[in-house]
Amino acid sequence: MNFQTSGANLYYEQCGSGEPIILLHGNGEDHKIFDKAVPLLQKSFTVYSVDTRGHGQSSPVTEFHYDDMAGDIYQFITGLGLEKPTVYGFSDGGIVALLLAIKYPDLMSRIIISGANVSPYGIEPRWRMLFKLIYMFTKKPQYRLMLEEPNIPDHQLASIRIPVFLTAGSKDMIRLSHTQRIANTIPGCQANIYFGEGHSGYVVHSELIAKHILDVCGK
User: Fold this and answer.
1) Are β-strands 164-169 and 190-194 bridged in parallel, bridged antiparallel, or unpaired?
2) Three-class SS string for 109-142?
3) Are 21 and 49 in contact (CB under 8 A)?
4) In 42-175, which residue ranges form alpha helices assigned H by DSSP?
5) What φ, ψ does residue 156 adopt, rounded to 5°?
6) Measured distance CA(117)–CA(179) in Å, rounded
7) CA dist., res. 104 & res. 120, Å (int)
8) Domain total of the chain
9) 20 to 30 A Cα–Cα from 9, which one of 69, 77, 78, 104?
10) Residue 76 — very low, low, confident or very high, per pLDDT cuts 50/70/90?
11) Looking at residue 177, which CATH number applies to its domain?
12) What is the pLDDT of residues 135-149, one digit of tens each?
Protein backbone atom coordinates (compact mmCIF):
# COMPACT_ATOMS: atom_id res chain seq x y z
CA MET A 1 0.00 0.00 0.00
CA ASN A 2 1.00 3.63 -0.41
CA PHE A 3 0.48 6.80 1.60
CA GLN A 4 1.14 10.26 0.15
CA THR A 5 2.66 12.83 2.51
CA SER A 6 3.40 16.44 1.62
CA GLY A 7 6.92 15.46 0.56
CA ALA A 8 7.00 11.75 -0.22
CA ASN A 9 5.04 8.72 -1.27
CA LEU A 10 5.50 6.09 1.44
CA TYR A 11 5.17 2.39 0.78
CA TYR A 12 3.93 0.31 3.71
CA GLU A 13 2.54 -3.10 4.54
CA GLN A 14 -0.23 -3.73 7.04
CA CYS A 15 -1.17 -6.95 8.79
CA GLY A 16 -2.58 -8.35 12.03
CA SER A 17 -5.15 -6.90 14.39
CA GLY A 18 -5.20 -5.02 17.66
CA GLU A 19 -3.59 -1.78 18.74
CA PRO A 20 -1.37 -0.18 16.09
CA ILE A 21 2.39 -0.46 15.97
CA ILE A 22 4.63 1.19 13.38
CA LEU A 23 7.99 -0.36 12.50
CA LEU A 24 10.74 1.93 11.19
CA HIS A 25 13.95 0.52 9.68
CA GLY A 26 17.46 1.97 9.61
CA ASN A 27 19.60 3.76 7.04
CA GLY A 28 19.84 1.98 3.69
CA GLU A 29 17.27 -0.66 4.63
CA ASP A 30 13.55 -1.21 4.13
CA HIS A 31 10.60 -2.86 5.89
CA LYS A 32 11.85 -6.34 4.95
CA ILE A 33 14.34 -6.34 7.84
CA PHE A 34 11.35 -7.11 10.08
CA ASP A 35 10.37 -10.30 8.24
CA LYS A 36 11.03 -12.46 11.33
CA ALA A 37 9.46 -10.02 13.78
CA VAL A 38 6.17 -9.29 12.01
CA PRO A 39 4.72 -12.85 12.25
CA LEU A 40 5.05 -12.65 16.05
CA LEU A 41 3.87 -9.05 16.38
CA GLN A 42 0.78 -9.42 14.17
CA LYS A 43 -0.77 -11.77 16.73
CA SER A 44 -1.09 -8.85 19.16
CA PHE A 45 -0.92 -5.70 17.00
CA THR A 46 -2.03 -4.21 13.74
CA VAL A 47 1.45 -3.88 12.27
CA TYR A 48 2.42 -1.09 9.87
CA SER A 49 5.86 -1.72 8.32
CA VAL A 50 6.94 1.46 6.54
CA ASP A 51 9.65 2.23 3.99
CA THR A 52 10.87 5.71 4.90
CA ARG A 53 11.44 8.29 2.17
CA GLY A 54 14.23 7.38 -0.21
CA HIS A 55 14.19 3.74 0.89
CA GLY A 56 12.66 0.54 -0.44
CA GLN A 57 9.55 1.18 -2.50
CA SER A 58 8.96 4.71 -1.21
CA SER A 59 9.70 7.67 -3.46
CA PRO A 60 13.37 8.60 -3.97
CA VAL A 61 14.92 11.79 -2.61
CA THR A 62 18.10 13.72 -3.37
CA GLU A 63 18.90 14.49 0.27
CA PHE A 64 17.91 13.15 3.67
CA HIS A 65 16.93 14.91 6.89
CA TYR A 66 15.55 13.29 10.03
CA ASP A 67 13.05 16.11 10.51
CA ASP A 68 11.57 15.34 7.09
CA MET A 69 11.27 11.65 7.96
CA ALA A 70 9.58 12.50 11.25
CA GLY A 71 7.16 14.78 9.41
CA ASP A 72 6.28 11.95 7.04
CA ILE A 73 5.50 9.57 9.90
CA TYR A 74 3.44 12.22 11.70
CA GLN A 75 1.34 12.64 8.56
CA PHE A 76 1.13 8.86 8.18
CA ILE A 77 -0.21 8.45 11.73
CA THR A 78 -2.69 11.30 11.54
CA GLY A 79 -3.70 10.60 7.96
CA LEU A 80 -4.59 7.00 8.73
CA GLY A 81 -6.26 8.02 11.98
CA LEU A 82 -4.08 5.75 14.11
CA GLU A 83 -4.93 6.18 17.78
CA LYS A 84 -1.88 6.39 20.07
CA PRO A 85 0.29 3.89 18.18
CA THR A 86 3.44 2.33 19.52
CA VAL A 87 6.39 3.26 17.33
CA TYR A 88 9.41 0.98 17.12
CA GLY A 89 12.48 2.39 15.42
CA PHE A 90 15.83 0.79 14.65
CA SER A 91 18.89 3.03 14.20
CA ASP A 92 17.68 5.92 11.97
CA GLY A 93 14.14 4.78 12.73
CA GLY A 94 14.88 5.24 16.43
CA ILE A 95 16.05 8.80 15.78
CA VAL A 96 12.78 9.48 13.96
CA ALA A 97 10.83 8.03 16.90
CA LEU A 98 12.65 10.32 19.33
CA LEU A 99 11.89 13.37 17.19
CA LEU A 100 8.23 12.40 17.05
CA ALA A 101 8.09 12.06 20.84
CA ILE A 102 9.69 15.49 21.22
CA LYS A 103 7.59 17.33 18.64
CA TYR A 104 4.24 15.60 19.11
CA PRO A 105 3.99 14.61 22.78
CA ASP A 106 0.40 13.33 22.54
CA LEU A 107 0.77 11.39 19.30
CA MET A 108 1.97 7.99 20.53
CA SER A 109 1.50 5.70 23.50
CA ARG A 110 5.19 4.72 23.72
CA ILE A 111 8.34 4.43 21.66
CA ILE A 112 10.79 1.54 21.57
CA ILE A 113 14.15 2.30 19.99
CA SER A 114 17.29 0.33 19.20
CA GLY A 115 20.78 1.56 18.33
CA ALA A 116 19.79 5.24 18.14
CA ASN A 117 22.05 8.26 18.55
CA VAL A 118 21.27 11.92 19.16
CA SER A 119 24.52 13.28 17.69
CA PRO A 120 26.90 12.11 14.95
CA TYR A 121 29.53 11.91 17.69
CA GLY A 122 27.48 9.20 19.38
CA ILE A 123 28.85 6.89 16.69
CA GLU A 124 32.07 5.07 17.53
CA PRO A 125 35.00 7.01 15.98
CA ARG A 126 36.15 4.13 13.76
CA TRP A 127 32.66 3.81 12.27
CA ARG A 128 32.35 7.56 11.78
CA MET A 129 35.69 7.57 9.95
CA LEU A 130 34.50 4.73 7.72
CA PHE A 131 31.34 6.67 6.85
CA LYS A 132 33.45 9.76 6.07
CA LEU A 133 35.58 7.76 3.67
CA ILE A 134 32.55 6.20 1.99
CA TYR A 135 30.93 9.60 1.58
CA MET A 136 34.17 11.09 0.24
CA PHE A 137 34.23 8.56 -2.59
CA THR A 138 30.51 8.05 -3.25
CA LYS A 139 28.82 11.33 -2.21
CA LYS A 140 25.77 9.26 -1.27
CA PRO A 141 23.39 11.48 0.73
CA GLN A 142 22.53 8.79 3.30
CA TYR A 143 26.15 8.89 4.52
CA ARG A 144 26.14 12.67 4.68
CA LEU A 145 23.03 12.39 6.85
CA MET A 146 24.83 10.23 9.42
CA LEU A 147 27.83 12.58 9.47
CA GLU A 148 25.79 15.75 10.02
CA GLU A 149 22.64 14.70 11.89
CA PRO A 150 20.90 14.28 14.28
CA ASN A 151 21.56 17.12 16.71
CA ILE A 152 19.10 16.58 19.55
CA PRO A 153 20.02 18.50 22.72
CA ASP A 154 19.53 17.10 26.22
CA HIS A 155 16.75 19.53 27.08
CA GLN A 156 14.66 18.14 24.24
CA LEU A 157 15.25 14.57 25.38
CA ALA A 158 14.29 15.61 28.90
CA SER A 159 10.98 16.97 27.59
CA ILE A 160 9.75 13.53 26.46
CA ARG A 161 6.81 12.41 28.58
CA ILE A 162 5.73 9.09 27.06
CA PRO A 163 7.37 5.77 28.00
CA VAL A 164 10.64 5.13 26.17
CA PHE A 165 12.31 1.73 25.96
CA LEU A 166 15.87 1.76 24.66
CA THR A 167 18.04 -1.14 23.51
CA ALA A 168 21.58 -1.44 22.18
CA GLY A 169 24.18 -4.11 21.66
CA SER A 170 27.22 -4.29 23.92
CA LYS A 171 29.29 -4.19 20.70
CA ASP A 172 27.09 -1.57 19.03
CA MET A 173 28.51 1.02 16.64
CA ILE A 174 26.77 3.55 18.91
CA ARG A 175 29.00 4.30 21.89
CA LEU A 176 27.62 2.70 25.05
CA SER A 177 28.30 5.88 27.00
CA HIS A 178 26.15 7.74 24.47
CA THR A 179 23.34 5.20 24.83
CA GLN A 180 23.53 5.56 28.61
CA ARG A 181 23.40 9.34 28.31
CA ILE A 182 20.18 9.08 26.31
CA ALA A 183 18.68 6.69 28.85
CA ASN A 184 19.67 8.91 31.78
CA THR A 185 18.30 12.07 30.19
CA ILE A 186 14.86 10.83 29.13
CA PRO A 187 12.59 10.66 32.18
CA GLY A 188 11.81 7.08 33.16
CA CYS A 189 13.61 5.58 30.15
CA GLN A 190 14.21 1.85 30.46
CA ALA A 191 17.41 0.58 28.83
CA ASN A 192 18.34 -2.97 27.89
CA ILE A 193 21.79 -3.95 26.60
CA TYR A 194 22.10 -7.12 24.53
CA PHE A 195 25.50 -8.47 25.54
CA GLY A 196 27.58 -9.87 22.70
CA GLU A 197 25.39 -8.20 20.07
CA GLY A 198 26.47 -5.57 17.59
CA HIS A 199 24.32 -2.87 16.07
CA SER A 200 21.80 -4.96 14.17
CA GLY A 201 22.08 -8.69 14.85
CA TYR A 202 19.21 -8.87 17.34
CA VAL A 203 16.95 -6.70 15.15
CA VAL A 204 17.48 -7.41 11.45
CA HIS A 205 15.79 -10.64 10.33
CA SER A 206 15.45 -11.61 13.99
CA GLU A 207 12.64 -12.66 16.33
CA LEU A 208 14.48 -11.28 19.36
CA ILE A 209 13.29 -7.71 18.89
CA ALA A 210 9.68 -8.86 18.50
CA LYS A 211 9.91 -10.71 21.82
CA HIS A 212 11.31 -7.58 23.44
CA ILE A 213 8.52 -5.43 22.02
CA LEU A 214 5.86 -7.85 23.20
CA ASP A 215 7.43 -7.97 26.65
CA VAL A 216 7.63 -4.21 27.22
CA CYS A 217 4.09 -3.78 25.87
CA GLY A 218 2.76 -6.41 28.22
CA LYS A 219 1.60 -8.76 25.46
Assistant:
1) parallel
2) CEEEEECCCCCHHHECHHHHHHHHHHHHHHCCHH
3) no
4) 66-79, 92-103, 125-138, 141-148, 154-157
5) -75, -40
6) 7
7) 23
8) 1
9) 104
10) very high
11) 3.40.50.1820
12) 999 999 999 999 999
